Amino acid sequence: MTSLEVAGLAKSFGGVTAVDDVTFSITPGHIHSIIGPNGAGKTTLFNLVAGLYVPTSGTVRLAGQDVTALAPHQRAALGLGRTFQNLQIFFNMSAIENVMVGRHLRRRAGFLGSLFALPSAWADNREARAQAARLMARVGLEAYLDAEADAMPYGALKRLEIARALAAEPSLLMLDEPAAGLNPTETQEIDRLIQSIAADGITVVLVEHDMKLVMGISDHIIVLDHGRLLAQGTPAEVARDPQVVAAYLGGEPA
Amino acid sequence: MSDFLQFVFSGLTVGAIYALVGIGFALIYNASHVINFAQGEFVMIGGMATVALIDLGVPLLPAALVAIAIAALVGVALEKLAIEPARNAGVVTLIIITIGASILVRGVVEVVLGKQFHRLPSFSGDQPILVGGATLHPQSLWIVGALVVLVVGLKLFFDRHPFGKAILATAHNRLAAQLVGIEVKTVLVASFALSAAFGAIGGILTAPLTLTQYDVGVMLGVKGFCAAILGGLGSPFGAVLGGLIVGLAEALAAGYVSSAYKDVVAFVMILLVLFFMPSGLFGTKGTERV
Amino acid sequence: MANPALGRWGGLIVLIVVVAALPLVLPNKFYYDIAVKTGLNALVCVGLNLLIGYAGQISLGHAAFFALGGYASAVLTTRYEWNGFLALGAGAVATGIVAYLVARPILRLKGHYLAMATLAFGIIVSLVLNREIWLTGGPDGITVPTLRLGDMRLRSAETWYWITGGALVVVTYLALNLIHSPSGRAIRALHGSEVAAETLGIDVARTKTMVFVLSAVIAAIAGSLFAHADRFITPNEAGFLRSVELVTMVVLGGMASTFGAIVGAALLTVLPQALAGFDEFKHIVLGAILVGTMIFLPKGLVPSLGALIRRWRR
Fold first, then answer.
1. How far is A243 from C95, CA to CA, in rounded Å?
2. pLDDT above 70 as % of chain A
3. A110 and C202: CB-CB below 8 Å?
4. B2-276: in CATH 1.20.1440
5. Percentages of chain B per state (helix, strand, coil), in multiples of 5
6. What's the CA gap between B43 and A201, in Å, rounded?
7. Could you read off the pLDDT of A104-156 as tens digits, one per residue?
8. Where do the domains of chain B lie?
9. Which of A67, A200, C63, C265 could share a disulfide with C41, CB 3.0–4.6 Å?
10. What is the pLDDT of residues A179-224, one digit of tens each?
11. Which residues make Cβ contacts (< 8 Å) with residue C150, sequence separation at least 6?
């Protein structure tokens, strides 16, 4: 059984093809990375998998189920979680509330229950707050529990997004450049965090520019170039692939 | 047939005014991404100031020119005093600011010129012209003629004049415009002044036909907004077509369906357009990237 | 504030105290009438704030829902001799259904387009109310019979003061519940980032629809109460300027602040009365206050004052 399966996926904007006939599959429980030069179509691919874009052609399957026609929130309900390259924090809320939103799929109270503060809504609030606090501690944000999101530094917001995504208890977590803009110490922390997430049995798909990070922690790497799948395999295999070296690693000795 | 022609005449006349207001919306939106809910007040200022000056004994032409200048000054003041200080505010805040400004302007005119209706004498008399069995008021020719002249002038200004090109460039990409040395602040001020002037001209031209009062701007502003959205926000020439379409649809609906519901036509039309082609008839669709 | 819950429920207690104590300083019927108008506007604004302040969706047509509720009460009780409370309920349900039907297509739009669409919807409703004279009485309005509770005729300004005050406290309590619940966090998430909300499993269209319908139903109930309290309603209640007035109250008081919405409603209801002596200058003052507040206190009065107090405490 595969965690994520993408077949013949393509997306063009106007006349520009951002993702071109990409096929790959991802096995559960490992760290997979999608790499490629700028404009290779990595984020577009993420948005296609998450359901934010409708593909021009091709299919997306999550845990064997065809989700190509499903809306993003329906894919989330099937265990897909993600973070964003450009932060998508709820800046109108506190840090812990951001993570509590992540518990949305696990709530029991409906709209009316919420409105009339039925016991189910109280229970939801208590449970969500406890889980959120635990997750914030896990990503190293225990100091920010009561902070407003718009008062937090960039590096902390990156981790807040991860905590928020984890709150939904996803089985597949897509991280879009989690280390971008972070200093080496912070990058190391993210590195450890990603490994611990994978150790919990969550399948991780990573888009990342930091080659050291990618080569260090990935079990499986997918290389995109100009929207096409160039190569895939273990870090060692990919690093040896002459096409990859030419297209991507050629310029920078890894 | 003559009925139809009659409806077309009145539709084009009204539509030309909507078009002028719509151009104003588009010009300001292009420069600042603000929807100026005070746009209708420029129309009101144009008509009211002209009437007031004529009452003081000023002849029509200088009175009209001064009225246009007053409206342009109000436009500049609006940009400098209300829009610029709130540069980074959200859409809702900017909408409220322009609504506040429109209430303020109405209030000032109410105090200075009173609440009565005013009428401007027609430019070339009131003797209707017979065309194909329908009558055409000479003032309608002035209105449509002015629209044609202004649209051609605007087109030439955008195509030929360096400052017109600068306005277009800023609308297209503010940052890039800044990098090539365009004074974005000047463009902003000029857009507000130009848009106010267009509105005021509309107000002066219609005052002989429809009477004018301190609060005529509200509905005209809303209809002009319809025209601008129909034409695709930020497209001045789209707004012209949008305005004419709204005007024609209203006149035809009033003639053939129900005059009581002529105002509904514009709004039903705008809802349908928004539901089925949200970027207007001539707008371009943007893509969102996350 | 160290404990946000303290501020939340503390605010509700302050509201209850103010509502309970205000009659001590209201000298006569005229002031009671203003208090009732204030309460009804506040009611609408608490609901509208859920939509504008929390969900981040503008509506320039909310007066239409207020008027739909009011006219449902007026028409059902006069022309069809319904019981007033039944008519109020029916008006609220019917308005909710109308809101539900327009919500999906309208709320797909964003920013200026949403503003335009809600504006168009509001104007259409107000034009229909103006034109269907056989049903609504047209521009002259329609007289509404006194609301009866059993044998009791709810007629005096004092009675309406307590009805309105009670309704405001209840709706404020419900709004506070909602905001700090799972559904409320989903609503606020829409304002923060729709894409992020979607990827966390929030059904954006459904959540928007829920909050839109809720705010419309609250407006409709307020409209019904208004029709009976005033015993008269005109299509002006549905007008564009009335919708603008409601949005202005919310924004002036402070978006995403329930008590801000109440303060904004109170200010903009009382201020024109206070300026009544200077009737001529009413619009100038109102316009200047609006522009000034938006420029200098863009978050609105209550949140800006709250921030000021917090800074001062430190």
1. 63
2. 97
3. no
4. no
5. 75, 5, 20
6. 66
7. 999 999 999 999 999 999 999 999 999 999 999 999 999 999 899 999 999 99
8. 2-276
9. C265
10. 888 899 999 999 999 999 999 999 999 998 877 888 889 999 999 9
11. none
d(CA B44, CA B212): 7
Residues of B whose CB is below 8 A from C126: none
SS3 B289: coil
Residue A247 has pLDDT above 80, yes or no: no
Widest CA span in chain C: 63
Q: Report CA-CA distances (Å) from B141 to A73, B13, B138, B148, B244.
A: 57, 8, 5, 10, 14
Give which of C102, C109, C113 to mutate to test B binding, by max B Cβ within 10 Å. Answer: C113
Mind telling me how many Å the CA of C140 is from chain A's nearest CA? 38
- pTM equals 0.91
C184 inside 8 A of chain A by CB: yes
Tokens of A114: 């919420």
Contact between C112 and B85 using a beta-carbon 8 Å cutoff = no
In a domain, residue A130? The reply is no
Count of domains forming chain A: 1
Average pLDDT, chain A: 91
Note the residue count of chain B: 290
pLDDT tens-digit series, residues B260-270: 888 888 889 88
Q: Which residues 86-115 of A are in CB contact (within 8 Å) with B?
A: 86, 88
List of chains touching C (3+ CB pairs within 8 A):
A, B
Q: Give the Cα separation of B289 and B216 in Å (integer).
A: 42
Domain with A179, as residue range(s), is 4-79+170-249
Overall average pLDDT of the B208-233 stretch? 86
Position A110 in a domain:
no
Q: List helix spans (H) across C254-300.
A: 258-274, 282-296
Chain C residues in contact with A94 (beta carbon < 8 A): 4
